[in-house]
Specification:
The protein has about 450 residues and is mainly α. It folds into two domains: about 190 residues, no CATH class; about 240 residues, no CATH class. Helix 1 runs parallel beside helix 8, helix 3 packs parallel to helix 7 and helix 14 runs antiparallel to helix 15. The longest helix is centred in the middle third of the chain and has 38 residues. The chain is globular.
Length: about 450
């Protein structure tokens, strides 16, 4: 987890050194399109395997074939749309080639789900590390040979291919490789669950990426490049860390779905784990951004500083939704998640379009922070309460207490550090490291005394 997260961060920095902001903006748009295709390809069937603990060979074979068929249809349909509507005509071939990843990746989607269902997380981590390292090395080789934007796609496809090969080899070893049986009536329940989850995931993805699409359409590729750079620096580590937590939490919460008290405790534990990990990362990025964006990325990326500081708070609040989404999926209430994402998808575009039309890229980021803070409490009332009942005090404390503790500690330590006459940017790293150390010690004390993990039901 830590290795791949660091590797992704290093890759973002390297791309910042090799690509201009406008090129990075084009790349961001291509990755948005690929992400959309991947949601359609999965169709929620991987989650259905875990949530329903599917074991039937006929069902698994039918689900596997369905995934392959979906991937081919999605690729062909997407390729036509790309050639007709992609705004940067000189990159149409690049985008189409990158889109082929949805077909390649579909070969191993079910194998990943089976590993998750059977708690083979060490194996998943090993495959991920090997594939990410292979992709990173191929990216470096391609950049060194002057392939520009194509370098990113080469690295991306290399990672996908290596991951697929390793998962296929493991599937053969575990006797998971499906037979060529397809019976639609055997997977009706999984398709129903998957359809609701597809709708929820699709709406969630559209709402989470709509800001980038609007920035590209209204403010242009250079503004999108700045925005996407800041967005990736805060979102990628958050998503990577959350993915590990939710992968473990999903099968665990699924097995607790019939016990409301245990499910409530499990959800709070997952939420706290997500917040505890993300808080020091996001607030440290916010604190260190002014000192290190220029030296690390280059002076042409200086507009990213303010965006990075604003979006770090957005990413921290948004990370809490992953725990709730895992809870909803574990209880089989994908329809509830779908309704929520319909609400957000209807509300968020209005906020983003208005902020982009009457302001700039920084105004879009500020609007997202305000909106996300508001949604935290609406999410609790209409999703969390519906799933596990009332737990408002614990919900609020779990989300905001770690950020308050870390922020207060950092402020105190910096005040002591201000007595040092000659300071360099390295001192700020020292302040952050000391803050992280004291922060985790404080959290451990609070946990040991039951202030954070002592979950009691509220009336």
């Amino acid at each position: 987890m830590l290795f791949t997260t660091l590797l992704m961060m290093v890759q973002v920095v390297i791309l910042g050194r090799f690509l201009e902001p406008a090129e990075y903006g084009v790349l961001a748009l291509i990755m948005i399109i690929i992400g959309l295709g991947e949601i359609f390809v999965n169709f929620g069937l991987s989650e259905a395997i875990v949530q329903n603990e599917v074991n039937s060979s006929i069902q698994l074979s039918s689900l596997y074939i369905a995934n392959i068929i979906f991937s081919i249809v999605v690729f062909l349909f997407s390729a036509v749309l790309i050639w007709l509507f992609f705004p940067y005509h000189e990159h149409i071939v690049l985008c189409t080639v990158a889109m082929s990843s949805v077909v390649i990746n579909s070969v191993c989607l079910q194998f990943k789900a089976l590993c998750q269902r059977d708690f083979l997380f060490n194996l998943l981590a090993k495959i991920e590390i090997i594939s990410y390292l292979a992709g990173f090395l191929s990216l470096l080789v391609a950049l060194a040979n002057g392939f520009g934007l194509w370098s990113v796609i080469i690295g991306f496809l290399t990672r996908i291919v290596i991951s697929v090969l390793l998962h296929v080899l493991n599937a053969v070893k575990m006797n998971w490789f499906p037979a060529f049986h397809f019976k639609l009536n055997q997977i009706n329940e999984q398709l129903k669950f998957g359809f609701n989850l597809l709708g929820a995931n699709l709406l969630n993805y559209v709402s989470s990426r709509f800001d980038q699409a609007v920035v590209a359409a209204i403010l242009g590729p250079t503004a999108l490049g700045y925005y996407s750079m800041a967005f990736n620096l805060v979102i990628q580590p958050m998503q990577k860390l959350n993915l590990v937590v939710t992968k473990v939490a999903f099968p665990v919460l699924s097995r607790l779905q019939n016990n409301r008290d245990d499910l409530t405790k499990g959800y709070i534990h997952v939420l706290l784990a997500v917040v505890l990990v993300n808080t020091p990362i996001m607030l440290s990025l916010c604190y260190l951004a002014p000192e290190f964006v220029g030296p690390v990325l280059g002076d042409n990326w200086l507009p990213v500083v303010v965006l990075l500081q604003i979006l770090s708070f957005y990413a921290l609040m948004r990370s809490t939704g992953n725990a709730g989404a895992t809870l909803v999926m574990a209880t089989g209430k994908a329809a509830l998640l779908f309704k929520w994402n319909m609400f957000v998808t209807a509300l968020q575009p209005l906020v983003i379009v208005l902020s982009a039309r009457f302001g700039g890229v920084e105004d879009v980021a500020i609007a997202l922070v305000i909106l996300q803070l508001t949604l935290l409490f609406i999410w609790y009332q209409y999703v969390i309460v519906e799933s596990i009942g009332k737990c408002l005090k614990k919900y609020v404390l779990t989300i905001f207490a770690p950020a308050f503790i870390f922020g207060l500690l950092l402020f105190i330590i910096e005040q002591f550090g201000s007595f040092i006459e000659e300071q360099s940017p390295m001192y700020k790293i020292v302040w952050v490291m000391l803050t992280c150390l004291i922060y985790f010690i404080s959290i451990l004390i609070l946990v040991k005394r039951g202030y954070l993990f002592n979950v009691k039901k509220e009336n």
